[in-house]
Amino acid sequence: MEYTEVLVNDLDNEIIPEIMKYGAPTLEDYNDVTSIATRLAKELNADIDAVILGAKFMHSKLGEAISQKKWGEHTNMALGFALSFFQNYPINESIKNKVLTCIKEHREKTFTCREAEICANANCYRYLIPKKILKMFYNLKSQGYNFEEILFIAQEKIEQKWNSLTLDICKKELESNYYKIKEFLELCKRENNLE
Ligand SMILES: [Fe+2]
User: 82, 97, 100, 189: most buried by Cβ count inside 10 Å?
Assistant: First the structure.
């Protein structure tokens, strides 16, 4: 097994139980965003190992932060987790720094390395895919949100994620989805006289 695979394996063993315990993010999003980030890293000739690790770490500690009502802290918590995780593994400093940057900048719009930009853009796919929006409705309903609230959150998320995309390749891939989902949500709103 390649060294990164060992790391990824050990990391999954830490993060997946956390996802199961707190229910955030969904396991599907954790896996899907990592696959999208990996594909983008290949297409854009970025450091694949750093992108895979960065995409996984940026999802860590999210559920725990939400459960403590400290959502805004999840990036710092993930950084702390990554630093302590790396203490147990000798890892190339340049990959390690890129991974830490991926975590730090995963909600930014300007980036200090290509790998961080890839992780942040891949994260936007969580809301710009029709299936994911429907699943979001389903998940939020089970958390007690009502229809109007979920509709509002969905609209907010698609705007936020669309406006966060910086890579042309991602804008191209998601543009038609964005306009279709946007129109669909607006129709729902109008039908329910929510405007
Ligand atoms: Fe995040």
Answer: 82
Angstrom distance (rounded) from CA 177 to CA 128: 6
Which residue among 124, 143, 163 closes a domain? Answer: 124
Q: Find out whether the peptide bond into 25 is cis, omega within 30 degrees of 0.
A: yes
Query: Cα dihedral sign for 95, 100, 104, 107?
Result: positive
Over the stretch 145-169, which tens digit does the pLDDT of each residue have? Answer: 999 999 999 999 999 999 999 999 9
Distance 193 CA to ligand 1 centre (A): 33
Q: 164-187: per-residue pLDDT in tens? A: 999 999 999 999 999 999 999 999
pTM for this entry: 0.94
**In angstroms, what is the span from residue 106 Cα to ligand 1's centroid?**
7
Domain identity same for 114 and 185: no
State the DSSP code for 71.
Answer: G
The alpha carbon of 190 and the centre of ligand 1 are apart by a number of angstroms equal to: 31
Same domain, 58 and 150: no
User: Considering its fold, how many domains does the chain have in total?
Assistant: 2
